[in-house]
């Protein structure tokens, strides 16, 4: 038996000398030869490839562990970002009641420069009242959980008497900005039911409003197709815009109903707290 093992050892050594790139082979020690009888007289070899040699290194093990931790963190961050930035394939909505907000197809576009709606045209009692009604749900009292869901620090937010924090939906902020620009456009024509405070508009405020509307337009990107026609008046300097392109819009009736259900008026009572958390 020993002679057989010795002959095999010589063959393996000879093979390794001729093939230095082949995996190493670890032979059994002499004191382990008694195991041969339980394996039908065949010697047992343990092959050590490149993976086994690497795995035996302590530093390689540490490296693999750290690598797996980093990959796990990155995977978790990716999954967390996905589920907090989308809801059923739509942009993330903080309020559960609005996650089922419906959409409608509209084809109406504001292309006639001389046709006024209930909100447009020189200031008068009717359109002033329409804008005031439209802006009634501007403010509402958001809960601490809603602020946290939006990434807002409640400790840096203004509280409202009766509970919650004063807040506004982005769409109403934009409507507020449009109304301020309307005041500026018709600064010399103030209706009787427009207050002095409404008429006092700073340039900084208007510039802020323009930036709000620009960002909103670029965010939502209305893809309606507009074409242009020659004006009927040959003296006109501008082409006439025209569009019947369908576009997807939110169900404003549903959204406005939700906003009215949470409104706290245009002049809510605010709470200023002292550093120790007591009302001032």
TrEMBL record:
Keyword field contains Transmembrane helix: yes
Sorted UniProt keywords: Membrane, Transmembrane, Transmembrane helix
Family label: Belongs to the ustYa family.
One of the protein's GO biological processes: mycotoxin biosynthetic process
Presence of keyword Zinc: no
Residues passing through the membrane, by range: 60-83
Pfam families per UniProt: UstYa
InterPro entries for the chain: UstYa-like (IPR021765)
Name this protein carries in UniProt: Cyclochlorotine biosynthesis protein O
Native source organism of the sequence: Lojkania enalia
